[in-house]
Design a protein that fits this description.
Structural class: alpha/beta
Helix content: 25-40%
Largest sheet: 6 strands, mixed
CATH superfamily: P-loop containing nucleotide triphosphate hydrolases
CATH class: Alpha Beta
CATH topology: Rossmann fold
Order of helices and strands: EEEHEEHEHHHHEHEHEEHH
Radius of gyration: 17 Å
Shape: globular
Strand order of the largest sheet: 6-7-8-3-9-10
Strand content: 25-35%
CATH architecture: 3-Layer(aba) Sandwich
Length: 236
Amino acid sequence: MNLLEARGLKVSYGGINAVKGIDLEIHEGELVALIGANGAGKSTTLRALVGLEPPAGGAIHYQGHSIIRQPTHQLIRKGLVLVPEGRGIFGRLTVEENLHMGAYCRSNAKEIKADVQRVYARFSLLQERCRQAAGTLSGGEQQMLAIGRALMSRPRLLLLDEPSMGLAPLMVQKIFETIRAISAEGVAILLVEQNAKLALETSHRGYVLESGLITLHDEARALLNNQKVRHAYLGE
């Protein structure tokens, strides 16, 4: 079953067509990579899927229902959650306050407290810094916090926008271990990632977005062996 499906999705900024009518789908529990050069429209696509950019055309269905022009906060309640490029943490709030912001649409205090502890079990560094201002964390720690905050909303589909950007190799490894673990727990993931090789090695399927259009779609392993992908995105 398709958890999310976009058909003919278009997004425009003024007179610029950033996304030009793409089709993509995410199945239950699936990890899918969306790769492409800078400016291809990847982040715009994610923002449109969660209601942060109004589509200029096309359809988006989530759990079998149209979500075109539904407010983002309603989509979060339905389990469709974005970790944005740049992390978007609240720098003046503590780590734990940021985590509670991720649960703003929930009301069961006992369950929220239990989920905070689950995030700390996943990211022990965050527990050590739970009362520290989030803005004083390293880039990698802020990315952990951004993912942890998203998990506090109990996502069914998690959209990740450039989770490894600006991070040291060891931290990139930790973040991708976390992505694999979240996927193994049954959460569907749509991953936009500058490191195309790592993204495809981690994913089940992949899409290649070029200048606002999907030009390739295949199993991740097939894309890793595709000569065009290897030349354009894998540095070969």
